[in-house]
Amino acid sequence: MKIKKLLNNNVVIAKDRRKGEVVVMGTGIGFQAKPGDYVCKDKIQKVFILNDNTKLEELISQIPASYLELTEKIVAYAYAQYDIQLSESIYLSLTDHLYFAIKRIREQTDIDNPFLVEVKQFYREEYGIGLYAKKLIYQMYQVDIPEEEIGYIAMHVIENTHNKGKRYVGKTLEVVDATITFLRKNYLNVIDEDGLAYTRLLNHIKHFAKRYIEDKENDIDDQLLSKTITEVFQKEWECVESLSLHLKNEFGREIKSPEKNYLILHLRNCKDLKIDH
User: Fold this and answer.
1) How far apart are CA 119 and CA 174, in angstroms?
2) Coil, helix or strand for 104?
3) In which element (H, E) is residue 5 found?
4) Consecutive 10-residue runs of the chain (277 residues): their mean pLDDT?
């Protein structure tokens, strides 16, 4: 493929015989190059086809290419550090967000993130990616982003991990928060938050919340298991039954029986890890 336009040392627009017009990213791919030169194949890290992506083409025409590089570094870190694979749509949504977020911060415009607490507590890996982005942004633009923006970057990661929109992610976070808040108040009032059992409970609740929102909970009921759990783990069963009614009041639907069993078992695993004061 031949270079059509240089965006910076690491991003070029090129012409491919089969794919048409493309954006090519790679360290040093545009360094000392000029239009008409062939792209060095060994330096190619990412290729975007522009012919069918008018929004990306518009974005590139309006935003410095360094912001696309920034997104690529965040995506690469997510995969290398946490094995999180993100959908390609993040290159459009996150690049756009980062550009205007940095612009807002430079203009000293305050922002709020209503889901910051939930993201920090329940999506620690994604928040860790946001912290990495904070370091990159300071290195590249000498801008120190606040916690609220770290949370928004984490939310972009969450959205593009599951290819869901902001409304879906927001609703899921609401269910996660309502569930954890209820359990902490009624059962896990004192608990080691760094303990393995609590981490497993959080992970389970995150996946449960997605299934609950989508109405795709496990509905294969093992009656013998349900009977055993009800009889042996009475306190945990009562707590989850109350939680189910609480979620019905908040979101319109109770928890299905098989999901209740899994929650009961996770609660039981946390029981012996409470801290005595």
Assistant:
1) 11
2) helix
3) strand 2-8
4) 86 84 86 88 83 72 88 94 88 91 90 85 91 97 96 91 75 90 84 76 86 76 68 88 94 90 85 46
Chain centre to alpha carbon of residue 144 = 21
Alpha helices in the chain (DSSP H): 54-62, 65-82, 90-106, 116-122, 124-141, 147-161, 166-186, 196-214, 223-232, 234-251, 257-271
What is the separation of C-alpha 38 from the centre of its chain, rounded to a whole number of angstroms? Answer: 37
For 25, phi then psi, to 5°, come to -115, 145
DSSP 42: G
First and final CA of the chain: distance in angstroms?
Answer: 68
Amino acid at position 120, single letter: K
Place of tokens 């093992």: 222
Output phi, psi for 222, to 5 deg: -90, 100
- Of 275, 261, 75, nearest to 188 by C-alpha is 275
- What's the predicted TM-score (pTM) here? 0.69
Rg of the chain taking only CA atoms, in angstroms: 23
Nearest to 171 by CA among 250, 84, 92: 250
